[in-house]
Amino acid sequence: MTELTSQKDASLAAIGAATTLDALEEQRVGALGKKGWVSLALKTLGQMSPDERKEAAPAIQAVRGEVAAAIEAKKAALEGAALEAQLASETIDLTLPAPSVPQGSIHPVSQVMDELAEIFADLGFAVATGPEIEDDWHNFTALNMDESHPARAMHDTFYFPDTAEDGGKLLLRTHTSPVQIRSMKAQGAPIRIIAPGRVYRSDSDATHTPMFHQVEGLVIDRDIHLGHLKWTLETFFKAFFEREDITLRLRPSYFPFTEPSVEFDVGYANEGNRRVVGGHGDDEGHDWMELGGSGMVNRRVLEFAGVDPDEYQGFAFGLGIDRIAMLKYGMNDLRAFFDGDPRWLSHYGFSPYDQPTLSAGVGVKS
Ligand code: PHE
Question: Whose CA is closest to 249, among 224, 271, 277, 209?
Fold first, then answer.
């Protein structure tokens, strides 16, 4: 028993003197661990006579309790001190200037979408949105592509196994044109909107990614004609590329949802390995580049969307946002847009302070 008492005193002293959690743990193992002196003392109970045991057992248990309590108390004290020290070392002086390291950047696609909204808002367009998970009625049928229409196959559509509420197929929208339908159904005519957003097609190479961005434009009113379309696109491109010498060429084309349909090209020149928009495509050193599709909205589409085609008519257009972003800011690989590489993002990304405005210039890169 005297041995036990001296062991206890030594142990309590060492626990009291421990300055780290590791040192304390060493004491715990030495006393209460499997081979610790308290555990060994408890084991001796087995060889004792019942009378001896009756006396020794409570004494050993009392020592055990005392040592365990001392360890607990010391542990709490050491942890408390560690936390205090950590908090003290992590104090932030809010009066210091902000760190100079850039914290992130605005993706060129987001920036271009803001530029689009700014330019078109000035022309009286509102921004409309629609779901990326669409049903085949909005994505195809209401756009004059019934089930057997060959254009459906050309869209490389991603379908879901589930069906829509109306029993139709669910899919990832292949273009922003279904927003035409949704907006007309919701608002009727007259209407003047753009709808920028993500679209999806099962296609992937240097110039195609399975997800890309389009902006849809729609103007429905009385007496709208193709001239309004050409002026709108020209005015937009002049503001977007920030140059006056933009030449647009309309070429006859076909889309089930427009009649007549036209594709629009813009004149450009090769400067080094970069294409620079501007000039007349037929001029020396110039050529035409296709930028999008458009046309007068097909009467059938107006009917599907609940607009009276005898009273209202208008135009629609669709163009690739990634494409015009690449042209304006000089990137040449579309895939890099969606890799999320911080080096690419810090090079091509925009400062959050670069808000596109018509007065300060849309898309000034600082
Ligand atoms: N939705 C068409 C496409 O993705 C583009 C387009 C939009 C054409 C509006 C005409 C009118 O190819």
Answer: 277
Atom nearest to 261 CA in ligand 1: 10
Mutate to test the pocket of ligand 1, among 157, 177, 184 (most ligand atoms within 8 A of CB): 177
Q: At what angle do helices 50-89 and 2-17 cross, to 10 degrees?
A: 10
* C-beta 178 within 6 A of ligand 1: no
**243-294 pLDDT, tens per residue?**
999 999 999 999 999 999 999 999 999 988 889 999 999 999 999 999 999 9
Regarding the beta carbon of 139 and ligand 1, being less than 6 Å apart is answered no
Helix (H) or strand (E) holding 193, with range, is strand 191-200
| Cβ of 258 less than 6 Å from ligand 1 | yes
Q: How far is the CA of 2 from the centre of ligand 1 (A)?
A: 96
**Residue nearest (by alpha carbon) to ligand 1 atom 10:** 294
Q: Which residues pair with 211 in a beta bridge?
A: 200
Burial of 86 (0-12, 13-18, 19+ CB in 10 A): exposed
pLDDT at 363: 66
pLDDT band at 365 (very low <50, low <70, confident <90, very high): low
The whole-model pTM stands at 0.72
Residue nearest to atom 7 of ligand 1 (CA): 318
Compute the chain's Rg from CA coordinates.
37
Q: What tens digit of pLDDT does each residue of 6-31 get?
A: 999 999 999 999 999 999 999 999 99
Asked whether 294 lines ligand 1 (CB < 6 A), one says: yes
- Dihedral (CA of 173, 177, 179, 182) sign: negative
- Residue 297 CA, closest ligand 1 atom number: 11
253 burial type by CB count under 10 A (0-12 exposed, 13-18 middle, 19+ buried) = middle
Which residue(s) pair with 275 in the sheet? 270
Position 164: which residue type? A
